Amino acid sequence: MEAIETIASLWIDEHPEYHAELSDVDAAIAAMGQLEDGKSNAFLHLSMHLSISEQCSIDQPRGIRQAVELLTHRRDSLHEAHHAAMDCLGQMIWESQRAGRPPDGESYVACVRRHATGD
Hints:
- There is one protein chain.
- This protein is mainly α.
- It has one domain.
- It has helices at residues 3-13, 19-23, 25-30, 42-58, 64-75, 78-99, 105-117.
- The N and C termini lie far apart (40 Å).
């Protein structure tokens, strides 16, 4: 497997609620754009895990690695830290799109730090 596939498989293992959905590739791809009420999008959720993993591996935006490490320590779980960081990542993307500006990495990292420090 490619490195990214290995990382993806680790996050898939952390989400048994997606196993049935992802076991049939054709059905999963066909349903990718359809979202049922109260159900999260497996592809979006897992891609956010992959994004945060990649961001931490290269520390981009600068400071994200330390912020996620601090949050992991506070939550005692990398998985839970990622879920909190996803809120910040989603907020940054939404604000960027709404304002028509590039994503603000500094505010994203600051948000993750706030989660880590409890502020």
